Amino acid sequence: MKPSNVEPEHTTLLSDVYVPARQLNRLVASSKRGKDPASLLLGRLIDMVFTKEMLRTSSGLGLRETGRKNPLNPLRVAAIKEFVTSTAAKNGWLEISEGKFHRAFTNKISDARSSWKRKKCLKK
To answer: For residue 86, which phi and psi values (nearest 5 degrees)?
Structure first.
């Protein structure tokens, strides 16, 4: 993700995903206040990097072959994982397990689908 209105020197490179450094710094600072800072940071990054529509229409991380839907962009997923892992290590936070990482995405996808269904039902 390369924001068009942000100059390259004001962004942080997460693999091939660009996010404004100011937003990342805010996320890290606000995550430090939680009981599980790495998990909090992970959830907030998922919301920042993927839209609700992307989450809702995806097959998740693509761990199983469904054939119906495309998985989330693996570069973005890897960038999030890389950033959370390095930030956790740098700040002395507990590392996120693979299972917890997958559950965070599953929960965000489920929430996106549920809120879409609720909105759809309200329109009827």
So the answer is: -70, -40
Q: pLDDT (tens digit, 9 = 90+) per residue, 106-123?
A: 999 999 999 887 776 666
As beta bridge partners, residue 12 has 19
Q: Which of 77, 47, 75, 50 is nearest to 61 (CA)?
A: 77
**What radius of gyration do the chain's Cα atoms show?**
15
Q: How far apart are CA 62 and CA 8, in angstroms?
A: 31
Place of tokens 């936070």: 93
For the chain, count helices (H), then strands (E): 5, 2
| Matching residue, tokens 């800072």 | 37
pTM, 2 dp:
0.80
23, 45 Cβ separation under 8 angstroms:
no
How far is CA 95 from its chain centroid? 16
How many other C-beta atoms are found inside a 10 Å radius of the C-beta of residue 83? 23
